[in-house]
Design a protein that fits this description.
Layout: H1 2-10, E1 14-20, E2 23-28, H2 29-48, H3 59-79, H4 87-102, H5 115-137, H6 139-144, H7 154-189, H8 193-226
Antiparallel strand pairs: 1-2
Length: about 230
Amino acid sequence: MKELLNELLMEDKTFLKVPFGSGYLEIYKSVVMTWIVIAFLFILILFLTRGFTVHNISKRQAAVESFVLWIRGVTGGMLGEEAIRYADYIGTVLIFIAFSNMVGLFGFTPATMDLNVTIALSIMSIILVEAAGIKKRGVKNWLKGFAQPMAVIAPMNVLELVIRPLSLCMRLFGNILGATVIMELIKFVMPVFFPALFSLYFDIFDGAIQAYVFVFLTSLYIKEAVE
């Protein structure tokens, strides 16, 4: 187990080294995988939305519109009426993380198994949370909120700004890493057929669950910020 964790965590994460100045600009594998997922989703969106019309819509258009309405319903339900404007962003993050977690089906390492990626996603989420709070309350009332319900706990409320993104990034990173470790162990002790079955769970179901948990917590923080 220790050797496996060292292999997964200490492997060379560099995909390409580009000469830059007196040294090299390193492009990580997780960055390349993120680009691939974004490109795939962009091409998929172009294909699925091609030829949309207002009247006499096709079955494909009806299916896409139903899916969009479903995603908006899921994210809108988590956010509540006060924060419904952020539903599309939350839905986008949900789809991106879910697809990023599922690339293991094709033998690739998920970008979310790189702590740098989960940190970036968490920082983006917390920035949105605090921006939503400032937009709703104003800067003065937002600052006063740190002293609620009493001034003595202000340091704890400030510390929460660090704890929240840390919790988000470590939860996502830890669960994806854990699933990868379990899959590697299964491949080691079982025939080829069984790892394929378990992969359907860890790469699809568990990957989607972890994406949902990430956006659910982000939505909960946004909802609290605008109340």
